[in-house]
Design brief:
Elements (H helix, E strand, L loop, with lengths): L1 H32 L8 H12 L1 H4 L9 H18 L3 H20 L1 H13 L8 H25 L5 E3 L2 E3 L4 E3 L7 H17 L4 H9 L1 H22 L7 H31 L1
Antiparallel strand pairs: 1-2, 2-3
Helix pairs in contact: 1-5, 2-6, 2-8, 4-5, 5-6, 7-10, 8-9, 8-10, 10-11
């Protein structure tokens, strides 16, 4: 029986690798070259850890293979074909998750899939967002961050004139580019907070509150970073807005965002205890 299961597992891995090897290679390449999605390397590992974390629950679920999994697998194949024909990488990559869901349902049943649905859906975090969607999110974030940070800079007594996503100071001009929009830290923080929320013992609605809190926290800390950068550029010199100090401030601000998420977790835990 075990040899039969092992043979099926090996056969599935080989078939999956043959079908998706091009999409997987390109996906790894994107993780390596695009800093916006470098966290993709960690997503499969975190997903596996989620499954391991719930192994005591998974072991108790009866194995009831369902033929409905075949239909899900076929849907995944159709999405893959559509993405291949249209040269749409996102569809080709997303079809991997659909196919994986179908395989779980076919071999282990719906009960098992329901237990694994979060780790499976979490894999979406590893897929780079299509450029057209990325731009529609990033640019409004750029304008919002520029607007709020310019107001904050004015409040601390530094003259500033905002022109779109450009902040004009007395001694320099700062452009809030795509990398400064906060969307990079937002995607990374969502990925980390999603995993953290799943692993906590909070009830479902508190898990969702913790997960969604990553959005306002990421936006807020990015505004703080831009405000500090503008202040340093005005008080110390334009060179502080670039290079090492600029990079290290990003790491510090992201660490601050993680601390804020953890503080919210503590608050939600206290509420649950009461």
């Amino acid at each position: 029986m075990k040899k039969h299961i092992l043979f099926q597992a090996v056969l599935f891995i080989l078939a999956f690798g043959f079908l998706y090897h091009k999409a997987i290679i390109q996906l790894v390449s994107d993780w390596s070259t695009d800093p916006n999605f470098s966290h993709g390397f960690l997503i499969p590992l975190v997903s596996l850890y989620m499954i391991w974390h719930r192994q005591h629950i998974i072991r108790e679920i009866p194995v009831r293979p369902s033929v409905n999994g075949i239909y899900i697998i076929l849907l995944g194949m159709l999405v893959h074909i559509a993405g291949n024909v249209g040269s749409e990488l996102f569809l080709m990559r997303f079809s991997m998750i659909i196919t994986l869901a179908g395989v779980i349902i076919y071999y282990w049943g719906m009960s098992m899939f329901n237990a694994l649905i979060v780790p499976v859906c979490y894999l979406i975090m590893m897929i780079p967002i299509p450029a057209i969607i990325w731009s529609k999110v990033a640019f409004p974030l750029q304008l919002f961050a520029a607007k709020i940070s310019s107001e904050a800079i004015s409040m601390i007594g530094i003259p500033v004139f905002r022109e779109g996503n450009i902040l004009h100071l007395s001694n320099t001009s700062l452009e809030v580019i795509d990398a400064c929009s906060g969307i990079r830290s937002l995607t990374s923080l969502l990925a980390l907070t999603g995993a953290f929320a799943f692993l906590t013992s909070l009830n479902m609605w508190k898990k969702w509150v913790l997960f969604i809190s990553a959005i306002p926290i990421a936006v807020a800390v990015n505004v703080v970073r831009l405000t500090i950068t503008g202040a340093m550029a005005a008080w110390v010199g334009p060179e502080t807005a670039h290079g090492f100090l600029h990079d290290i401030s990003g790491m510090i601000i992201f660490g601050t965002a993680l601390i804020l998420v953890y503080l919210l977790f503590i608050c939600l835990t206290k509420i649950a205890q009461r």
